[in-house]
Fold this sequence. Notes:
By secondary structure, the protein is mainly beta.
Amino acid sequence: MMRKVMFQIVATALLVLPALAQEVPLNTPPIYNCDYQPSCEVAPGIYGKMASPVMSKFNLSIGGYVKLDYIYNSVNLGANGALGTLQPAGIPKTSSVAGQQDQTLVTARQTRFWLKVDGPTFVGAKTGALIETDFFGAGGTNESANMRMRHAYGTLDWQNTQVMFGQSWDNFGPAAASTLDFGLGATTGNPAQPRISQIRITQKVRLSEQNSLKLIAAVQNPTQDTNTANGTAGESWGSMVNVAGQAMVVSKALGVAPGFWGLSMNSLTAGFFGLYGNQHVAGNSDKVDSWGYGFYTFVPLLKSKDGKGRTMTASFEGQAFMAANMSFNNATAQALVGPTGNKSPAKGYGVFSQVIFYPTQDLGITAGYGRRNAYNYAEYAGIANFQKSSSQVFANIAYDLNAAVRVAAEYQNLNTQYGNNSPGTSGTGTANVARFSAMYFF
Length: 442
């Protein structure tokens, strides 16, 4: 009797299961292999299937790249030797211990990942957001890298107006050296901080069929606050937000040519940029200003035949600026000069230029020069080993094996000139840098 009952139960179950299976919605997530512990829902990449759908309440895309670098530095540039041009303290003097050591690095820390969202509309504007991170965070090592936030912002885009809020590039100094080290030439003519929190409005004004005006106004985090010291009792403290902007003419008259790394196709652009802020300084009766202004241009020398292809295209990019108390974005080598109680802004200027040439669609060649220089050396009296100038000459070549894989090689010559040198030390620091990179874009 018991066997008969068990047989009926099993038979009924076998009949019901196909019916239940047909009722499962078509959009049900894939079933993981859960034969292991911990549960595959906890660790699907190890114990379950390696692939699962990306889901969000809005349209979501992912991207980034894997980047492996081999770097040889003729001097020891320290823990951040992978960023050859980004040496705020300057290239070590040839008379120093570091200046007589070389350095070899192999690292994947510049690998990058981003998420991009296209959201709902708002009063006629498209909305979106982007979060981007890499593994070049402070304190990490080549094998145990720390993640850091690069970009994190939301946007509202109308036909001619964009509002952006979050963290993104500084609006001072739009040029970016197309170097493989990601230093962007920050200390050698291209002021740049590792992105900054801001609210920015970009307005496009149509001038004619081919020409338009691009205006940018932004308020930014006053990062020169790091220069403050203990204040006087009862004194109002803090800095006002920095204000920054750009006014650029953009023209289609010369077509388009490759920009940074050959990843964008840019039109003729020329115009001005600037920044202003201030800060308290201990002992000073008045606040100290931070300011800067400059000129930028991008010129298609050989335009793309169809607006997309890079074969036989070439471009020129150039920039010049003047700044004061802007060490926070490397526009000046230091913040302040002068005695206590009478501190004034350290002033400096910079120039930069580069040419990008693509003889074929997949082969890109870039060469450039940049220099940042202190202004009025007499103001640096009493400051030992101040940076008179910091410069670089660079050239690189990159080849795209397919839509995902790029290989590249680069040479840089980096130079720092020092003033008021300590006795027994040299006045120059020079580094020669060779770099080989392999990248996989996804």
